[in-house]
Amino acid sequence: GAVLGFSKREIDAKFDEIVDFAELHDAIDAPVQTYSSGMYVRLGFAVAAQLDPDIFLIDEILAVGDVAFRMKCFKHLLDSKTAGKSIVVVSHNMIDINRICDRVVVMDGGKQIYSGDVSAGIASYEELLLKRHGYSEQRSSDAGAWIDSIELLDSQGRYRSEFATGEDLVAEVKLSAIRKISNARL
């Protein structure tokens, strides 16, 4: 808390809430140097969250921790967002970005290459990765079979590109082969 600029009095006033949020009751008296990376992240997030910053800057902080703690953190972030707080998330996890953010900035080599809508920003980032790592031409010249295309359909058989979490979808995969392949595995 002191590193974040909060006084001892401010930290002491929130101490119990910090420990409760971090769920570190049994370990709170142990030296921080003995904490696992997950425990350290829990404590760091709990301190920042309970001291109620006006702007919350997060750099891949939710990459560690169990699912229940991650969900608690997401709920806190979404509650803060609803309360009008500003949240800046630096992440390579597009699921987290899509869940929390209203706007995306994509950077490449220190330069902004996109700024705007979340879905288009995620597409821009994924396109950048595909180009950078050459995944668009991944099939070797001697491949016996390959995926030509993948289309997504809803439960009514209509082609769509966006689905809500929990919504049924069907993937229609079109394959090509230069020879007959027995016992093919997909």
Would you kindly provide a written description of the structure presented here, covering whatever features stand out?
The model has no long low-confidence stretch (mean pLDDT 86). Helix 1 crosses helix 2. This protein has a two-stranded parallel ribbon with strand order 1-2. It has 186 residues and is of the alpha+beta class. It has helices at residues 8-22, 37-50, 67-82, 94-100, 118-133; strands spanning 55-59, 86-90, 104-108, 111-116, 145-153, 170-177. It is elongated. Strand 3 and strand 4 form a beta hairpin. It is built from five helices and six strands, in the order ααβαβαββαββ.
- Across the major sheet, the strand order is 1-2
Helix content: 25-40%
The stretches of 5 or more residues where confidence is low (pLDDT under 50) are none
Number of strands: 6
SSE order: HHEHEHEEHEE
Largest sheet: 2 strands, parallel
As a percent range, the share of strand residues is 15-25%
Q: What is the general shape?
A: elongated
| Through-space gap between termini | 51 Å
Mean pLDDT: 86
Classification by helices and strands: alpha+beta
Radius of gyration: 23 Å
| DSSP helical segment count | 5
